[in-house]
């Protein structure tokens, strides 16, 4: 019957494709040999799976049911939703989330691509490429490798970055905390910009503000390049 828990055996890791309209989505990666749809499962004939571990399904009740899913550690995940919040727990592989107004929380993903219109995005760990895009929501990531983040009016917070950073907003503030040397490129119109650099890193800083006076407290060098452009926001580059 629709809604009853459904278990699908998979190889060491799975590739999940999940879609829903307004229901909440909760996915937990853990040590297990199958994909278990605990809540919101459609009838078994509505679930497509194959021997490679690819599993596709939509939530029951016309796409509005809450979904709770458990999958093997390192599984890849694709989630599409309109307004249901998305929470991802445990270590996942390549993750892609597309939504309209959902809030997204990600505990750990090897690579991440999240796109939203008005929802906020919060990421605890993403050592690979981390792409976050939202219009009016905020975006925050910790422990990211190469990070590419854009908003219109939402705040951007990046902490513990280990690779290249590219951040862009219109009026939201941008805070970047570097864990190691890596090029940083920031563009904003009226938002403030704050970049913290590891004490042993000497960057080449190219800071430009039309109405403000950029402040750079780091010793100059060539370990990496920090480029910041702003129309009217304050710019600070300081040792962490």
Structure description:
With 240 residues, the protein is an all-beta fold. The chain is 2% helix and 52% strand. It contains one helix and 23 strands. The chain has a 23-stranded mixed β-sheet that branches. Strand 5 and strand 6 (54-58) form a beta hairpin. It is elongated, with a radius of gyration of 20 Å. The protein starts with 5 loop residues before the first strand and ends with a strand. The relative contact order is 0.10.
Q: Biggest sheet, in brief?
A: 23 strands, mixed
Helical fraction equals: under 10%
Shape: elongated
Return the structural class.
Answer: mainly beta
- What is the straight-line distance between the termini? 56 Å
Total number of strands:
23
Strand content: over 45%
| Helix-strand sequence | EEEEEEHEEEEEEEEEEEEEEEEE
Give the overall average pLDDT: 94
Radius of gyration: 20 Å
List the helices and strands and how they pair.
Elements: E1 6-9, E2 15-19, E3 25-30, E4 34-39, E5 48-49, E6 54-58, H1 60-63, E7 67-72, E8 76-80, E9 86-98, E10 104-115, E11 121-123, E12 130-133, E13 139-142, E14 147-150, E15 156-161, E16 165-168, E17 174-178, E18 184-188, E19 193-197, E20 203-209, E21 215-216, E22 224-230, E23 235-239
Parallel strand pairs: 2-6, 2-8, 3-7, 3-9, 8-9, 9-10, 10-11, 10-12, 11-13, 12-14, 13-15, 14-16, 15-17, 16-18, 17-19, 18-22, 19-23, 20-22, 21-23
Antiparallel strand pairs: 1-4, 4-7, 5-6
Brief summary:
With 240 residues, this protein is an all-beta fold. The protein has one helix and 23 strands.
Keywords summarizing the entry:
mainly beta; 1 helix; elongated; 240 residues; single chain
């Amino acid at each position: 019957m629709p809604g009853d828990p459904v278990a699908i055996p998979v190889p060491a890791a799975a590739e999940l494709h999940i879609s829903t309209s307004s229901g909440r989505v909760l996915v937990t990666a853990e040590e297990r040999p199958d994909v278990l749809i605990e809540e919101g499962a459609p009838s078994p004939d509505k679930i497509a799976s194959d021997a490679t571990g690819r599993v596709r399904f939509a939530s029951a009740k016309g796409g509005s049911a809450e979904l709770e899913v458990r999958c093997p550690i390192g599984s890849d995940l694709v989630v599409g939703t309109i307004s249901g919040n998305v929470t991802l727990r445990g270590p996942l592989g390549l993750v892609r989330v597309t939504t309209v107004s959902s809030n997204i929380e990600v505990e750990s993903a090897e690579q991440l691509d999240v796109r939203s219109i008005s929802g906020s995005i919060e990421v605890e760990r993403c050592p690979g490429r981390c792409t976050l895009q939202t219009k009016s929501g905020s975006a925050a990531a910790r422990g990211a490798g190469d990070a590419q983040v854009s908003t219109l009016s939402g705040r951007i917070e990046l902490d513990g970055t280990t690779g290249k950073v590219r951040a862009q907003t219109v009026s939201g503030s941008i805070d970047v905390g570097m864990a190691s040397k890596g090029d940083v490129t920031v563009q904003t119109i009226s938002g403030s910009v704050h970049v913290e650099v590891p004490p042993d890193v000497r960057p080449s800083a190219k800071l430009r503000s039309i109405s403000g006076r950029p402040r750079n407290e780091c010793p100059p060098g060539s370990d990496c390049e920090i480029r910041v452009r702003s129309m009217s926001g304050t710019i600070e580059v300081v040792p962490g």
